[in-house]
Design a protein that fits this description.
Its EC number is 4.2.1.20. One of its GO terms (cellular component) is cytosol. Tetramer of two alpha and two beta chains. The protein contains twelve helices and eight strands. With 256 residues, the protein is of the alpha/beta class. The chain has an eight-stranded parallel β-barrel with strand order 1-2-3-4-5-6-7-8, surrounded by eight helices. Strand 4, helix 7 and strand 5 form a beta-alpha-beta unit. Helix 4 runs parallel beside helix 6. The longest helix has 13 residues. The structure holds indole-3-glycerol phosphate. Indole-3-glycerol phosphate (IGP) binds next to strand 2, strand 8 and helix 11.
């Protein structure tokens, strides 16, 4: 478990000449009891790792689909603590790396040291904290480093080349290339400059680069994936799980 486990899963995929596919799910959407089953289903479908969202009342980067899922999860009393406890229960059986996605506030309230410790107990391999800029990350970066948990940094279309270089230098596990200017959510197409943006990031990165935001079908996944190492798909997966359309999830992952 940990950073190496995540990097190994990515490298296995890439050395087999395949692209990485990381689905996002909201923990507690439909109850926490479905989590183990959803994770193993996504693994069987061919996902390389799963991004697991912690519901939060003020999710600044989330679009409507993920926000709705967050509201459902909060209504089920899902908390950072209950998610970590649940993960710990089936840690030994789990065969797919987990990247926890949470805003900084819940971590801060939980306690940074306690968070890192409980992530280890739960077998969390990486963490994404979208509202934590490089300038502020020291408060958790060192603690996570110490526990061998990858801190995944994000780049934006508006990031300068200098900033991209710094993000690329610091990121662990992979580099999350946010590929729209806006919030999460399925979109029918991406801006034309996305390809050159991904290529620019690729030149700086020493770990895989994954494009995320707005990817909702295999064509988009293949198109963006061609300019980097793969994709993260959130809203579409969240929607399909909510509607019980698991066959469509399988198709989406397998055809991407
Ligand atoms: O939903 P989309 O457009 O497919 O984008 C992925 C995204 O949902 C997931 O990675 C995510 C959900 N919430 C976030 C907040 C910040 C960064 C990333 C995320």
């Amino acid at each position: 478990m940990g950073k190496n486990y995540l990097e190994k899963a990515f490298n296995n995929k890439l050395s087999a000449n395949e692209k990485i596919f990381v689905p996002y799910i909201m923990a507690g959407d439909g109850g926490l009891n479905n989590m183990e089953e959803r994770l193993s289903f996504l693994h069987e479908c061919g996902a390389t790792a799963v991004e697991l969202g912690i519901p939060f009342s003020d999710p600044v980067a989330d679009g409507p689909t993920i926000q709705d899922a967050g509201v459902r999860a909060l209504a089920n009393d899902t908390t950072l603590q209950s998610v970590l406890e649940k993960l710990e229960q089936f840690k030994e059986e789990r065969a797919i790396p987990i990247i926890l996605m949470t805003y900084i506030n819940p971590i801060f309230i939980y306690g940074i040291d306690r968070f890192a410790l409980d992530c280890v107990k739960a077998g969390v391999d990486g963490v994404i904290v979208p509202d934590l800029p490089l300038e502020e990350e020291a408060m958790i970066a060192d603690v996570l480093q110490d526990k061998d948990i990858a801190l995944i940094r994000l780049a934006a279309l508006t990031s300068s080349e200098e900033r991209i270089a710094e993000i690329a230098k610091r990121t662990e596990g992979f580099l999350y290339a946010v590929s729209v200017t806006g919030t999460t959510g399925a979109r029918s197409s991406h801006q034309t400059e996305v390809k050159s943006y991904l290529q620019k990031i690729k030149q700086h990165a020493h770990v895989p680069v994954l494009a995320g935001f707005g990817v909702s079908n295999p064509e988009q996944a293949r198109e963006l994936g061609a300019a980097c190492d793969g994709v993260v798909v959130g809203s579409k997966i969240v929607d399909l799980f909510h509607q019980g359309k698991t066959n469509e999830i399988k198709e989406l992952i397998q055809e991407s």
